[in-house]
Design goal:
By secondary structure, the protein is mainly alpha-helical. It folds into two domains: 135 residues, no CATH class; 161 residues, no CATH class. The protein is globular. It starts with a helix and ends with a helix.
Length: 297
């Protein structure tokens, strides 16, 4: 193990190759997280509601619900949604299995969405970019983990308009703990960044709600920006907000004009925050420098 770490430290190419292969496998697991975590949250909410309803209705008989089969990130085993064919190990190799199966189930030939290998490949490529940028060390490994979390949150928000606490708070606490060693920002900047990130969107939320009576965004967005603030510091939060708002506005206008979507239809903001946070973590200083050079030639 020590020899492997030494080889990664001495050879950037070996380190990036290692990160790419591991991240491909993690990308396969992220596909599971993206689908199952929202379902697990929904089941938990329903169970809590049922428990509360039963506790409030003293006259109701004590009926015991049938024991449901386990549903988590490990069980049940992955199967084809059409024919319930159990996915075998050789059918679950990131990217390669999808190509070998030509994007279809080996039994019923039901199409397998191309998003699965794209998530795997995207996770591998983005993680490799992070490894190349930061190099071998605490910053590199930590930024790769942050990339995995941001990818999972991006697709969950796109699918369900949810940003699970299990992911946003993990990113937040990891950023705060890392600030003790300071690979990205100091503890002071991380703490202020987390607080300012949360309170800035929280303030906008309540201002918009008081003015319009509508909710402009969800609390998950506050937590995600707080987590990003813990990684990039309060100084770079304006970059994150401006980038995410700019891209979000372009995408929103495009959806309205091209796809004819209703103006009142909500659009997830988490993916734009995640993308902006990722870019700021890698290139925040460069973006700020280019901005001031453009503003003050």
């Amino acid at each position: 193990m020590q020899a492997s770490f030494q080889l990664m430290a001495d050879s950037p190419a070996f380190f990036m190759g290692f990160v790419f292969i591991v991240s491909l496998m993690v990308g396969s697991f992220l596909n599971v997280v993206i689908y199952r975590l929202p379902v697990m949250m929904e089941r938990s909410w329903k169970a809590e509601i049922a428990e509360y309803t039963a506790s409030q209705n003293a006259d109701a008989p004590n009926a015991t619900s049938p024991c449901e089969p386990p549903f988590n990130l490990v069980k049940p085993d992955s199967t084809c949604p059409k024919c319930q064919h159990k996915i075998r190990a050789w059918e679950n190799i990131p990217v390669l299995s999808w190509l070998a199966l030509r994007g279809k189930c080996s039994q019923c030939k039901n199409p397998i969405a191309i998003r699965y290998p794209l998530v795997e490949l995207g996770t591998g490529l983005l993680s490799t970019l992070v490894a190349w940028h930061f190099g071998f060390g605490l910053a590199g490994f930590a930024a790769v983990v942050a990339t995995w979390l941001l990818i999972a949150m991006t697709f969950i928000d796109l699918d369900t308009m949810l940003l699970p606490d299990q992911l946003t708070l993990s990113l937040l606490w990891l950023g705060l703990l890392l600030s003790i060693e300071g690979p990205f920002v100091s503890s002071q900047d991380a703490l202020i960044g987390a607080a300012v990130g949360y309170l800035s969107l929280w303030s906008l939320y309540w201002a918009f709600k008081l003015l319009t009576g509508k909710e402009g965004m969800g609390y998950g967005d506050f937590k995600l920006l707080a987590a990003i603030g813990a990684w990039v510091g309060w100084q770079h939060l304006p970059v994150v907000v401006l980038l995410s708002s700019f891209v979000g506005a372009i995408v929103g206008v495009t959806l309205l004009t091209v796809q004819g979507k209703d103006k009142s239809q909500p659009i997830p903001f988490g993916p734009y925050l995640a993308a902006a946070g990722f870019l700021t973590l890698l290139y925040g200083d460069w973006i700020v420098t280019q901005y001031w050079q453009w503003m003050l030639p």
